[in-house]
Design brief:
The protein is of the alpha/beta class. The chain has 12 helices and 15 strands. The strands form 3 sheets. Strands 8-7-6-5-4-3-10-9 form an 8-stranded parallel beta sheet. The two termini are 17 Å apart.
Length: 374
């Protein structure tokens, strides 16, 4: 695997020092890889449909999946869902403390719950005890759109100070109950507010941080908004687990999340395709080729780099730094590069099948070498 992106000092990201917690078998914080999450949008009471969607998310590479538990019927179905899931599940709980206890007992690896919103100290104590008894961590989730009334009155509007104060108030409740297995999020739909709140929170507490620009919007604009907000934070070393919130198929959230991490060299999964936008110099149809390759290589989880460039202006230079490369030439053929070196000519006709074969072979070699090393 080409690792040139890891050795340049100007590419180094110094991650914030946070303590480590566990969400089931997944470590979050400290030196653990930044995990990628999504959330089901099927009715939780339909266990079969929810399990099917979790399976799709698992295949896409999800490390953690969140499932909403708004009522008793949902937490009853959650037991079946948790048994079927291969990744740890977070139970999304709002206001009703009983749902938190039920979800902990039903197999949740983590509870997304704000302890200050679930009632009396006795109720908080019961939920914390249920989490301790069942090995659950917790996520305190502060959203700009649902801040406590007293904080809105104090600050006049959602702002970083209000969001961080809310988060620390909730954290203090858990700490007072000697519970420290928690992470925090301070999300807003505005990337400016999101980034400012996380920057302030990162200085105030050492727990892991769950990043997200909430309600980011449709696939294209939501991806852009999330990339700006999450990218700024991750680049500065802030963030231990992420969720990209899109009004789209949840599988797309996982894809975008990994693409953000891949672009920053923080996680590597699947084939990273480098491609030119194409122009009149192209020796083959770049856009069509890349679209087909992206689809046909979606099953490859091994981290590899592939450059598909339409002509010889930038093609050879890009191919120097990718595992496999194809550069368009003349007379209906181009050049294949392997490990940055010219390998052989390849006719445009049949090049897609050939590139897929090369990628799959390279992935198998890499996996075999890794297995032997382990």
């Amino acid at each position: 695997m080409s690792d040139h992106t890891l050795v340049r000092p100007w590419r180094h990201i110094e991650r914030r020092k946070s303590r480590k917690i566990r969400v089931g078998a997944v470590e979050v914080g400290g030196d653990a890889p930044i995990s990628v999450q999504s959330m089901t949008n099927t009715p939780t009471t339909d266990a079969g449909a929810t399990i099917d969607q979790i399976r799709q998310l698992e295949e896409a590479g999800a490390d953690i999946v969140r499932v909403s538990c708004p009522d008793e019927e949902s937490t009853a179905a959650f037991r079946t869902i948790a048994k079927a899931a291969k990744v740890p599940l977070v139970a999304d709980i709002h206001f009703h403390y009983r749902r938190g206890i039920e979800a902990a007992e039903a197999g949740a690896a983590c509870l997304r719950i704000n302890p200050g919103n679930i009632g009396s100290p006795d109720r908080v104590r019961e939920v914390v005890q249920a989490a301790k008894d069942n090995g659950c961590s917790m996520r305190i989730g502060v959203n700009a759109g649902s801040l406590e009334k007293e904080l809105l009155e104090k600050y006049g509007e959602p702002c970083p100070d209000a969001m961080v104060e809310s988060a620390l108030n909730h954290a203090r409740i858990l700490q007072d109950h000697d519970f420290h297995e928690f992470k925090i999020s301070v999300k807003a739909s505005d990337p400016f507010l999101t980034v400012a709140a996380y920057q302030q929170l990162a200085e105030a507490i050492d727990c892991p941080l769950h990043l997200g620009v909430t309600e980011a919007g449709p696939l294209r604009t939501g991806t852009i908004k999330s990339s700006i907000g999450l990218g700024m934070l991750l680049w500065s070393g802030i963030g231990d687990t992420i969720r990209v919130s899109l009004a789209a198929d949840p599988v797309e959230e996982i894809k975008v999340g990994f693409d953000i991490l891949k672009s920053l060299g923080l996680r590597h999964r699947g084939v990273n395709i480098i491609a030119c936008p194409s122009c009149a110099r192209q020796g083959f149809n770049v856009i069509e080729t890349v679209g087909i390759l992206e689809e046909r290589l979606a099953h490859v989880s091994t981290p590899l780099s592939l450059s598909i460039i339409g002509c010889v202006v930038n093609g050879p230079g890009e191919a120097l730094y990718t595992d496999i490369g194809f550069t368009g030439g003349g007379k209906g053929s181009g050049m294949i590069y392997l490990n940055g070196k010219i390998a052989h000519k390849q006719a445009n006709a049949g090049m897609i099948d050939h590139i897929v074969e090369l990628v799959e072979r390279k992935a198998a070699e890499f996996e075999a070498a890794q297995a032997a090393a382990e």
